[in-house]
Amino acid sequence: MWHYYLMLSLRSLKRSPTLYSMVILTLAIGVGALASNMALYQSMAADPIPEKSDRLFHVSLNSWPDEDSPHQQPLFVTRYRDAQQVLSSGIPTKVVAHYQTRVYTKSLDAKSLTRFAADTRATTPDFFALTNAPFAYGRSLSSAEGNEVVLGSDLNDKIFGGSNSVGKAVEIEGKPYTVVGVLKPWTLRPRFYHMEQDSAFRPTDDLFVPLETAIDNNWGVNGRSSSVDYSGDMASSRPHNRFYLSLWAQLDSAAQQDSFQQYLDNYSQQLKDAGEHPLAINNELKNVHEWADKLKVVDQRLLAFSIATMLFLIVCVFNASSLLLAKYHDDKSEMGLRRALGASRNQLFRQGFVEAMLVGSIAGSLALLLSWLFLACSVVLLPNLKAIAQLEPAVLGQGFAIALLTALLSTGYPLWRANRASISAEMK
Amino acid sequence: MLSMQNVSRIYRTETIQTHALNDFSLSVNAGEFVAVTGPSGSGKSTFLNIAGLLDQFDEGEYSIDGVSVKGLSDNQLSRLRNEKIGFIFQNYNLIPDYSLFDNVDMPLRYRGFNGKERKRRIEEALEKVGLASRMNYLPSQLSGGQQQRVAIARALAGEPKLLLADEPTGNLDSLMARQVMELLHDLNKDGATIIMVTHDPDQARSVPRNVQIIDGQMTDHRVYQPQSVSASVESEAELA
Ligand SMILES: Nc1ncnc2c1ncn2[C@@H]1O[C@H](COP(=O)(O)OP(=O)(O)O)[C@@H](O)[C@H]1O
Ligand SMILES: [Mg+2]
């Protein structure tokens, strides 16, 4: 019987091509706008590391030496000596200090002089275990010092053609560094370990180097760096009030969190007692979600826009429904005839359901095509959106389901109305 | 076959209420051919619609083939319509963009027959009305009389116990009307129970049993001896 219903639905579409085109287009535009928005929203609001996003904490430490800080306190970056103190607490399961820099590099053996620009993470070794960075080859850095490096997938492709380059060497500023690991392609949306200053949807880094090595080499900070009293080079900045390191800790239990918080507060209090800062004790541990919220990773305008697209979709459903109301009104006598000849109301409802599914499927496919086009266009206009303007399978599925639902909603009332009267009245 | 006891049907609008059928009783046995006559607006269609389960009634009892229809669900009523009743309308009610085959097919689909069974029944029914060779025509390619014969084929294909016809010749010229009448008489001879509404007294007289409705009530009820009208119809049809 479903096969018959499908055939009737196709005939029905063929009978009123203009009307159905309008219905389908109306629904497709409404669903398409919503799906594009959902795609943006979902990548912004996505959990980049669901297995432990509630156990990874960004550490903000309050140690700014002046009463009137130019920044909101606690500052999200720390001094070298504060970071060392935090790294040595022994409390977190894992703890990392890192900053972003940028170097130019090539294979040590390469005859060509071409060097590749590499967004570089200068970090302590726990970084890889803490962020669950996926290794294709080799291992993580063994120390915060020394001449080891880990390559991101893209850079390994550029320098070594994607081969297993573990054991080979790259050259940076004339010095050799040994490759100890290569990552698989690694997308983090958002890039939780570095979301500050609107960089949440930047790609993960190309190159990972030991923290101390980067500082010794004067590799500059490619991010927030604040200082009250220091303007010298990186290498001699260690004892000074230069704030630039991001701190992350993995804290697996509430007890661990408490004692770590206590540790930070004690440290901050000691500094205050020693007259190093005048501020109230205010150290924050924010897990990945809380940190993303605080940094407003999900654009609030997008939320407002989402509500607008939802309202727009409702308007579209009303429009489609009123078009279908006219169509079902015209079909009343045929439906009456079908019932007179033995179709039950239920059978006609099923027929209408199949037709709605057909219309919804076409509208859904068109909607997804439209939203793909829309996202592609927005990337052309705003290249920054590249990382978030993605149609994930989940969004595709949801968009399609919404299209089916809107088609059902649009059909429901007209169908019910057309089947309400007695058969003899319908056939008049 | 069909039994109505004190059936009333009242149409209410905001300003008036109409007793379209008023305390109406009628029994029809299997194999009978009944003509229903009466002035326009007297309740003939209302009676036929109730008989065909296309309309509800307000009071009284109605049973068809021994089944009382009171309190039956929409599904059960549809089933009865589909299996026991064949309906023929004044304006044929064919679906214009369906071929004759698909038009006759429609009630069989809801019956749930398989493709082979449907095909057999469609061909047989169209054969009976003399249109088997035009299975793939559209209704618009036929004359009015032929269209009505398709509608009769559609009613017959389900092999119903009861054929209900509401002015089946009302839109036809006299020759085509006679052909349709002849077909109905033949079907009746083959055992079909038929109730037909007509405004044509001659036509009514060719039918063995007559019922007259005025103002929703039965006013006259007579049984004729079968006449030879159908015989004269045949000779005229042959001339055509
Ligand atoms: N759906 C309806 N609503 C209101 N009045 C109706 C309706 N159908 C029929 N009637 C009224 O009921 C009466 C009988 O109608 P009907 O059975 O169609 O008469 P007939 O077929 O004998 O011409 C008429 O007065 C008609 O106006
Ligand atoms: Mg009438």
UniProtKB/TrEMBL annotation, chain B:
GO molecular function: ATP binding
Record-annotated ABC transporter domain positions: 2-240
CDD domains: ABC_MJ0796_LolCDE_FtsE (cd03255)
Pfam family, one: ABC_tran
SMART domains: AAA
InterPro entries membership: AAA+_ATPase, ABC_transporter-like_ATP-bd, ABC_transporter-like_CS, ABC_transpr_LolD-like, MacB-like_ATP-bd, P-loop_NTPase
Parts of the chain that traverse the membrane: none
Source superkingdom: Bacteria
The protein, known as: ABC transporter ATP-binding protein
Organism: Neiella holothuriorum
